[in-house]
Structures are given as structure tokens and as C-alpha cells.
């Protein structure tokens, strides 16, 4: 069936198939720990598959994590930046302490039982 569809749409179709079968392990609002760099953060967005450029991947993702698994935008604790992290490099954070980041209140309304809740409408 994919052969009958113009080639320029093949990537999108494959992405849709992957998105429908790839289940994210972490949720928006969940606090995580980076396995390699040992920082804590809160997830603010989930991509079902890698959504950045190949150039970024080659320069930044030095461990070459899989592109066909979920990737996460994470606000980093005690910092002002965010990171884009492959699922393979994240683990659940054991503490129930909140994250100190200036954008937490932009994304969430409150912190309860070790996670952030009530994400705000940004668009």
C-alpha cells in the first residue's frame, strides 16, 4: 500500500505508524533523572520519535540513542535551560522534591504527590 503513495509522504506515514505503536514510559509533569549526566528535571513535552535535526543529533546526542523511541523536553533543576533527551537516558526520580526552574509555573499549576499537575494551555 505504501508504494501507491508518493515518495515524499513515506516518511510521514512511517512516522505515524511508529507513533501509534511507540508508548512513552514517562508523562508530562513527571520528575526524572538523567542516567548519564545525573541531573533531575520535569518533563514538559513528549515526542513519540526523535523530532530534531540530523545535525543536532550528530553533534549533541553522542551516545547515539535510538531515534525511533520517545524523546522528551525536560526543564533542568536549578538551571534556566531545558534539554531534549532520549527515553533511554532517563529514569524515574526517587525523590518527591519539586524542581527549581523559572518556567515551571508557565507549564504547570501545582505540585502534588511528587509530580506536577494541571498543565496550562500554551497555544
Mean of the pLDDT scores?
A: 86
- Classify the secondary structure makeup into a structural class: alpha+beta
- In N-to-C order, the SSE pattern is HEEHEEEHEE
The CATH architecture assignment turns out to be Roll
CATH class: Mainly Beta
Q: Extract low-pLDDT stretches.
A: none
Got a strand count?
7
Description:
The chain is of the alpha+beta class and 123 residues long. The protein has one domain: Roll (SH3 type barrels). The chain contains three helices and seven strands; from the N terminus they run αββαβββαββ. The chain has helices at residues 10-21, 54-60, 104-107, and strands at residues 31-34, 40-47, 71-76, 82-86, 90-92, 110-112, 115-117. It has a five-stranded antiparallel beta sheet with strand order 4-3-2-1-5, with no helix packed on it. Strand 1 (31-34) and strand 2 form a beta hairpin. The longest helix is centred in the first third of the chain and has 12 residues, at 10-21. It is globular. It starts with 9 loop residues before the first helix and ends in a 6-residue tail after the last strand. The model has no long low-confidence stretch (mean pLDDT 86).
